[in-house]
Amino acid sequence: MRRLMFPQRKFYRYFFSVVILLGICALLQIVSINFLNFSNRNSQSLYRKTSVAERTRGVREEERHFYILNNENTFRCRDGSNVIRLNQVNDDYCDCQQDGSDEPGTEACPNGRFFCLPEDMYMPSSRVNDGICDCCDGSDEWRAKVLSPMGNARDAPCTDTCREIQDVLEKKRRVKRDGQRAKEEYLEAGKPYIGLNDGLYGRQGEFYLLSQECFYYKKEKLRYTLCPFKENMQESGGNSFLIGAGGRWSTDPRTGENILVMNGGERSRCPQGKKRQTRIKFVCGLKNEILSLSENELCIYTFQLSTPAAC
């Protein structure tokens, strides 16, 4: 019996030795591949030449000097966490893991930012080369990746739509400029009310004149009479409902904008017996008028009202 077991034991010992040896070989192969990849990237970056245009792709004009050739030929992550060779900027590999500042022009860093020059705005660099034109000049789609045809005008290859956007922005600037001139009348009228009622009419009393007016708006079969800081009435089929009264300033949690909230409306037909509420978003405009009305939540009415007081 012992003579029979000895060869069997020897076989198992040999088998396990082979398995362990194969495992060690596989591990060494993985380590060597990673090392070679790392070495290849570093050796390539030693000789890789980059232009200023490549390095500054997606960079704001005021920050371009960080990405241009210096005596050390290096780039320091904006948060100071790492120093790399200048030609490793925008090479599609994220070296600045904390702030993504070395890859503004590629999608390599999940927290990177790409700057659209014509619109003067940042967007996440994860949207770079995703086949969708976010910047009006198409600069975010420099690889010209083409998505499957879906009939979307914003898909790459991009067309330059900056002229249209610039026209819209110029119109907004003109309205703001002229509106600020018209605002002087509102500031003059509101001087006696600065600081009264906890600043109810604005820090400079600019909204006081609006409290002396009422505005009318019709949507489908409903008519509204909105008197800011006082009351808001809804009329339908000969019946009237108070849908907001008084006024206090609050902040829109989604946009961070200041809005006027008029609580104290009637409870009828509202869920859980809550009172109806009116919210007013003031936007810069050359005249006082209601631009829109929405009821995204039941018994909460949001008005957008243009006025020079908001300029």
TrEMBL record:
It comes from the Eukaryota. InterPro entries: Gtb1-like (IPR039794), LDL_receptor-like_sf (IPR036055), Man6P_isomerase_rcpt-bd_dom_sf (IPR009011), MRH_dom (IPR044865), PRKCSH (IPR036607), PRKCSH_N (IPR028146). The chain crosses the membrane at residues 12-36. Keywords: Disulfide bond, Endoplasmic reticulum, Membrane, Signal, Transmembrane, Transmembrane helix. It comes from Holothuria leucospilota. PROSITE patterns: MRH (PS51914). The keyword Transmembrane helix applies. Pfam families: PRKCSH-like (PF12999), PRKCSH_1 (PF13015). Residues 212-311 form the MRH domain. This is Glucosidase 2 subunit beta. One of its GO terms (biological process) is N-glycan processing. The keyword Amino-acid biosynthesis does not apply. GO terms for cellular component: glucosidase II complex. The lineage of its organism: Eukaryota, Metazoa, Echinodermata, Eleutherozoa, Echinozoa.
